[in-house]
Amino acid sequence: MTATTPVWKLHDQFVVTESVEGSDVPVSYRLVPTFDALYAPVGLRVPDVAGPVPLVVLAYGNGGGGLDWVQDAVQNRGWVMERILERGWACAWIDVRTEVDLGYERGGPLTRDWRSGGELFNRGALDHEDWIATIQALRELPEIDEDRVALVGISHGGEMILKLAGEYDGVAVAVAAEPASHEFLAIRRDRSTTVDQLETTDVDSVLAHVDRDVAAERIAGIDLPILVMGRDDDPLQGVFRATHQLLDEAGRDVQWTTWDHPLHGYVAPLRGDDGEYEVDDVQRAAIDQMLAYVAARLA
User: Fold this and answer.
1) pTM of the model
2) Deepest of 19, 51, 132, 240, by most Cβ within 10 A of its Cβ?
3) What digits encode the pLDDT tens for the residues 268-293?
4) Which has the closest alpha carbon to 237: 209, 200, 270?
5) What is the DSSP letter of 21?
6) Cβ atoms within 10 A of the Cβ of 257, count?
């Protein structure tokens, strides 16, 4: 990106504040201008403590859900937010544009330039670039400590962390929980192997299909402590392990952990039909470990 790239700010006039069920910390919904000046939704919660405070930004899945998805995540995946708020940190659920199949693979780096008085891209912006725009905007808020921003990405959100980590340096620490990193790791299939036939539970089978040269080039740009969290019986456990192994082999600051739990996205517990969160001891321990990792790097 060029030196003329603007840093967008949050529009205060679009802030809508609501209460959160079972909590005394409200949420403010905001719209963040992305690189192409369209808008991505944010559900931000800030504890009532002296600031500026650290910020944890959470994302889950493939994007495209919009403000409705963020509102649902705040109200029904908010248990992890409460644990973050207890530490005196701000937190936000975000959503981004819909994932473009192989858009990262085929599009190459984003070039932003000016022509005839307006900005010009060499391609359309991608979902992980919306996340970068969101971080840039949130770091500008006076209540946020711009040097202590952490990310938690779940599933495709974990892969987005890897993509943005090689392009952006405004983050202190990240957690890639069950990262579906197929595209980032350049996992190839020969013509006789379909997606369903590719063995992804076993790390060696996954590594056999990784384009090592491409993956190494992408990983080389990462200068960010990352905790990679697997799930013991997940169909993509081999991808999760390969993500950690390749980062580790490249000398990145990375740690691995894995937990035995039936829920994909176990670090973001769900509210049950009775209005209470369904959280077990495994989730509590996993989230405690995740936040301890983040805290040690935000200190």
Assistant:
1) 0.93
2) 240
3) 999 999 999 999 999 999 999 999 99
4) 200
5) T
6) 15
